[in-house]
Write the structure tokens for this entry.
Amino acid sequence: MKKCYWRVLFLVFMMVIGGCQADPGESTYQNEDEAVEETMNSAVKVDPSINLSSEKVVSVIIEFKTKPAKIAVLEAEAQGVDMTLDKAKEHVEQSHQAFEQELHAFLDDNEVEYRIKHRYKTAFNGVSIELPANEIKRLMGSSVISRIYPNQEIQLDPPIQPSDQM
């Protein structure tokens, strides 16, 4: 379980530091205007490396707008607002319930097959889910979702230390 949290934290860190970049050899959209129009009209930010016109099943990580409980408490404290950890945890639970309702409206009612692989509530607030890439567009009207990232494993090489420090 810890390994999973570290992957999610690392993914978020890499997205913040490095930005979202598509593979150079991969065409993400058939039409650049189509990509701009889809993302400009939505409050949900989708990683540009996800081909929204593909029918291929993809695994993505969905980040909710509601912060994880401990982060929410720290941010509230920094702004001089009183918030208890229990109240923050309640907000996280409410975001997951609202997401379930939206999934029903956006995907179940349209008979779209999907599978929630994991629910994140501690270090990250969101879910990992598998669904056809072209069905991600249906989720762009969500009031709960903030960002959608591809679910991919990233491996880093350890830093090289000078021989005199070994």
